[in-house]
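Troubleshooting: if your tokenizer reports a length mismatch, compare your output against this known-good record of 258 residues.
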Amino acid sequence: MRFLHELSNESCSVDSHPGTYWVGLKKPPVRDVNDSDASDRAVIAKWMLQNTMGCPKTFELRKGELARALNRDVTVDEVAADFLRSVLPSGEMAEYLKHSELIVSIGDVLFAHGAVWSGALGAVPVLPSDSDKSMPTYNTTDGSVVTWNKISFDCEVDSDSSMYPVVQWAAQLNAFARSQVDNFMKCGSQYLAGDGPRPHPWAAAPWCSTGGYTGDAGAGLLQLGMGWAADKTRVPSVVYANNLRKDGTSSTCIRIKF
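Known-good structure output:
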């Protein structure tokens, strides 16, 4: 999703990119000697993957895939453009997002991308209404821009499985994700059509430099996929999470009522 935020704006440049809040704003993309003829979009795309997303070989691997698919050499600019294309409506990653869910309950098993931990259990983000969108797109000492609906897992339920807390949580959390993906697709369509505001205009800094739950192009889902917000608060995420300690042993087990 960050590809739309950071590669779609025609005015984006290596020199003006502020960096990310989690790696450090003092570590923005830098053009090296191997990128002397590359576009700013290509330099930023390589930097995103190698330095901020834990994918040091992905850019070159995709370059090789494109070369084999097209049966010719491809440029780094073509590779960067292809990453952006993949997240635009009808792109492979866009289609993946449309069909994805954050958590899925099948029988007595709950599946999550990362893990379910005590801080995330039952938590569903509630964003400001459209009339409140003048608020900052990041958390500040003046107050949080997001509130959380916390579904209780301590209540007694009848035999109606649709009322089970885990079912309600999955439905609400996935509904939030779908609304964020819908917003992301809308911004992608605006980009393709060449009308409407670009997500997070470059002058206001891209999402990666501030984080936050509000704003265009699925900012809420981006933030929910992170472990910590820019103000160092822990995000109740089931994406960037695990149930293992640093030594590899399991942390406290959470018992969920189905």
